[in-house]
Amino acid sequence: MFDYKLLAALAAVVEQAGFERGAQVLGVSQSAISQRIKLLEARIGQPVLVRATPPTPTDIGRRLLNHVQQVRLLERDLQSQVPALDEEGMPERLRIALNADSLATWWAEAVSDFCAEQHLLLDLVVEDQTVGLKRMRAGEVAACICASERPVAGARSLLLGAMRYRALASPAFIARHFPGGVRADLVARTPALVFGPDDFLQHRYLASLGVEGGFEHHLCPSSEGFMRLVEAGLGWGLVPELQVHDQLERGVLVELLPDKPIDVPLYWHHWRSGGQLLGMLTEHLARATGQWLVPLE
Amino acid sequence: MFDYKLLAALAAVVEQAGFERGAQVLGVSQSAISQRIKLLEARIGQPVLVRATPPTPTDIGRRLLNHVQQVRLLERDLQSQVPALDEEGMPERLRIALNADSLATWWAEAVSDFCAEQHLLLDLVVEDQTVGLKRMRAGEVAACICASERPVAGARSLLLGAMRYRALASPAFIARHFPGGVRADLVARTPALVFGPDDFLQHRYLASLGVEGGFEHHLCPSSEGFMRLVEAGLGWGLVPELQVHDQLERGVLVELLPDKPIDVPLYWHHWRSGGQLLGMLTEHLARATGQWLVPLE
């Protein structure tokens, strides 16, 4: 068997993004955790961590973390079958990466009953899609919600549905920038909002209007902040329909051009040998998410 | 004079979190940008970057970035005085780090008119307070909003006011966990919500009730997601009052124990030689934020 004390040290340092915090979580000293990682490296004969801020796993480190994650999930199952092994009534914990817009809209409602019934604690990580999958590959999360279908090795992906986005702005923004009415060719000359460097929704929208090339934009990597900036009239941007039912009804936000939504698929990536609880959560999501997501065309 | 082509390469790689994207932003090849950084290191005689994912600056790299940031701010001023230097009507851009809760609540409304009048684009970075200040020190942002007062060298800090947080839960959560009424000693035995490893608000709240030690909690690093999880009854947590006026009025959320708020001060950190636009924004915020923030006692 592997020495899991060493592997747990590696996992703690990576998951807590530092030696000090990793040591705190394990309840050992920083020099103890650092010793364990050196010992692990001595046994394997190569480094498992890049000592940067935060420390990142090497390729072999990543493979070890992936293994740790899977063992943890299997341990959970065993504990439910062998209650004596279980620390009295301790709740389960699942680490899940998801996109900010899901977390800002349907996620809480979709999982609340499940968490209460299963006494499950969530450790949520907000990531854009590419990084979410990287964290799966690195074994840092048990599951991940993202827009790309292709699962990492050892995992499965399940289509949950699509989130519908609409290009919105405030009435004041529209009055200021489009006094003669909104025209597709003028949209690219007004400031847009973009979530971050990996957010190409606004580019896709402009492309669908036949507009290519760059455009002025604010960067705002927060779902709620993004919506607030649109409401306050700083720019136009693509916002999940789920987040703005109320604002659209009240006329606080308006669609730039009528009925031109963009649908983004959401896939649930989960480890194949992820254990019972993860399997149950997967089934639960497959049943429940249709309430909030639209079918992918 | 320094060779700013080399410094700009360093800044692009750090700000874009990678060589590839850094090269894209500068419109050069990846090998060109990598050459420039090697040349910079050869001239200085030591590494400026740790080649991890993402690349992080070394100590000397950080000092260089700080310098680049300040030069950029000064260039902005010069452009407004020497219009010929200015690329025709190009909007200004300020990179600002702020806490997620400010962005989710008062920030957009506070700056929208200023941005429209000054033709200012925002490049917002969401960070908890300690990391926000690190980004100031690294010269990656022009300003930062955080809870700690002490400015980094070369910068000033200005108290904007305090955000008021209240410990909230859904009526269903309270009915399930506190059938006999909410009692301080029982709160620590119900699941809490915590924003991330640096969020000690829930700990402070429990301490104010005389409860010490650990407690079950979900982790949710998103303001909007945090509120949604509280609404959906997954746990109790401290939420900015500004964010939930409506929910408190409608009774969708209730305060755990009557009138026990926690106030968190917010400081505006900005470079002393940050240029005119940053100075104007500072004055604007000093005047405007009283509408949303409470005086610090």
From TrEMBL, chains A, B:
Name of the protein described by the UniProt record: HTH-type transcriptional regulator ArgP
Pfam family, one: LysR_substrate
Gene3D superfamilies the record matches: 3.40.190.290, Winged helix-like DNA-binding domain superfamily/Winged helix DNA-binding domain
Keyword check for Coiled coil: no
MF annotations from Gene Ontology: DNA binding; DNA-binding transcription factor activity
Similarity field: Belongs to the LysR transcriptional regulatory family.
SUPFAM superfamilies, per the entry: Periplasmic binding protein-like II, Winged helix' DNA-binding domain
Chain's role: Controls the transcription of genes involved in arginine and lysine metabolism.
Keywords for the protein's UniProt record, in alphabetical order: DNA-binding, Transcription, Transcription regulation
Subunit structure of this chain's protein: Homodimer.
Span of domain HTH lysR-type: 2-58
Organism of this sequence: Pseudomonas spelaei
Highest taxon in the source lineage: Bacteria
